[in-house]
Design a protein that fits this description.
The protein contains 13 helices and 13 strands. By secondary structure, the chain is α/β, with parallel strands linked by helices. The strands form three sheets. The chain has a six-stranded parallel beta sheet with strand order 7-6-10-11-12-13, with helices on both faces. The relative contact order is 0.14.
């Protein structure tokens, strides 16, 4: 049985699948050729990340497809309900990349409060000629410790962010339409741990009281943060989006950065991928990464092996 990992898969995932008797193909097939390739090569399992879209056309055109797997959390690039209505299994790996995304959130937070994104641009240009000027320009950093972090979306990733915030001595508040309460376990290197209970709040309360806001929501219609929401926030708020492009109104965000309503933004995802707007890319108050939230070696190992385990379990249960 053949598996097409069209957006790549870790070596550990390949080995796990090969041990299960699968042939793993890692050829990158262009979007418009995916259906033809699946049929021509008798592919039974299609694995994707965020790049490849699996819509009704591919599902209809590939009757031999048994499983569609998404390496990661969100499945907005797959017509999930339609695939399942056609008898195709759809799986993902919701827990595998939580820690990786959470660490990137804090990379952007630390970058923003200490101006690292801007100083890393300017030090190579002016570090030898304007050292004292740059030192003065970046001398007003702020600490995360003691500040309030607002988490919008309190699922696995939101809770992983909360753990790290607690470790830094931050106060954490959260909003989630589907989660009323959550107990977050914070583990330490020596086997000790603490449990912290959270009750989520109305999203408006989080906007009003947070010093920093991070988004962990699925793709959806309309903005989670637009002009009205920005107006509710504290002056000098920091905003991070490592969730989905299109949940922040980028035009309103740039206006808020320019007016100093927002101190900085950290963006891993964009309204217009893979060609973000130049106003976003060139803005001196935005820390930028190219949609790499889950792109750590450890996360990709976990994703690959978890997908392999799910695939083998599904097909074994079908045989039984």
């Amino acid at each position: 049985m053949k598996v097409l990992a069209n957006d790549g898969i870790s070596k550990s995932g390949i080995k796990a699948l090969e041990r299960g008797g699968f042939e793993v193909i890692t050829t990158k097939v262009a979007q418009e050729q995916v259906a033809n390739y699946i049929n021509a090569n008798d592919v039974s399992v299609l694995l994707v990340r965020s790049a490849t879209k699996v819509r009704k056309d591919i599902i209809d055109a590939c009757p031999g497809l048994k499983i569609i797997g998404r390496g990661g959390v969100g499945m907005d690039n797959i017509d999930v309900a339609y695939a399942r209505s056609k008898g195709v299994h759809v799986i993902n790996t919701p827990a595998s990349s939580s820690e990786s995304v959470a660490e990137l959130v804090f990379a952007h937070l630390f970058t923003g409060v200490r101006f690292l994104h801007d100083s890393n641009r300017n030090m190579p240009l002016e570090g030898d000629s304007n050292f004292d000027g740059l030192k003065k320009a970046y001398a007003n950093g702020i600490e995360l410790r003691g500040k309030t972090l607002g988490i919008i979306g309190f699922g696995r990733i939101g809770q992983a962010v909360a753990k790290m915030a607690l470790g830094l001595g931050m106060k954490v508040i959260a909003a989630d339409k589907f989660v009323d309460k959550a107990e977050v376990r914070v583990d330490f290197y020596n086997g000790q741990f603490i449990n912290v209970e959270f009750e989520t709040e109305p999203i408006e309360e989080v906007f009003k009281h947070a010093d920093f806001i991070t988004l962990h929501v699925p793709a959806q219609e309309g903005y989670v943060i637009g002009k009205e929401e920005l107006a509710m926030m504290k002056d000098g708020v920091g905003i991070v989006n490592c969730a989905r492009g299109g949940v922040i109104d980028e035009v309103a965000l740039v206006e808020a950065l320019d007016s100093e309503k927002v101190l900085f933004a950290g963006l891993d995802v964009f309204e217009k991928e893979p060609t973000p707007e130049i106003q976003i890319l060139m803005h001196p108050k935005i820390s930028l990464t190219p949609h790499i939230g889950a792109a750590t070696l450890e996360a990709q190992d976990r994703i690959g092996t978890e997908l392999a385990e799910q695939i083998m379990s599904l097909l074994q249960s079908e045989k039984a």
